Amino acid sequence: MSPASLSLAPHPLLCLRALAVEFAGHVGSLLVLAEVAAALAPTATSPLQKPDDVLRGHIRDLLRHGGFKPTGRSKPSSEYLVRAVEEGKWPAINVAVDVGNAVSLHSGIPISVVDLDRARPPLRVAIAPAGARFVFNASGQEIDVGGLLGLHDADGPCANAVKDAQRTKTDAATRRALLVLWGHVAVRAQVEAAERWAMELLRSAHGHVTEVACPHEAEA
Fold it and tell me: Is 96 helix (H, G, I), strand (E, B) or coil?
């Protein structure tokens, strides 16, 4: 399964984990896991330490490092998830996205979910240049990702800890996905616990999961 690795530009705060998963069939044909659906309820429990303001502060610091302002509509996706779930506005999408959302919700770690057959290699993680933009939903809305750490493919930025590009999102036909966990070195233990839970959930959905090598990770 590819990618076997991601190239990472040097970053002093980043603790990144990535999982490549291949399902037995298209995700649109797979049943939503009961444990994942339950994990998206506001009162759900999880095996992870509940995120607090300290963790949320570290994640925002990670995104600020390149000059991006993670506030308002550009706050980390993990923070958006909390409010969306509390308001009952987060429906099931597909098993890959639902696993990412459940783990992100309970860990406080933003997680991108990318269709590996839509992203064009090579894949790398770096800070987007000033003025970089992409469409993030089916309505054609754009986000300015200049200064934001994110995943890039051959066509440019395609995912980050705030929003993922529409062009590489999963849909019912997805069979291979990449989950990227955007962590700060100060919360490495939480990132690793989140990765383990994500692997467990994906495998329970009969996904073949591979840990993607991430060279040049920052040291705590």
Answer: helix
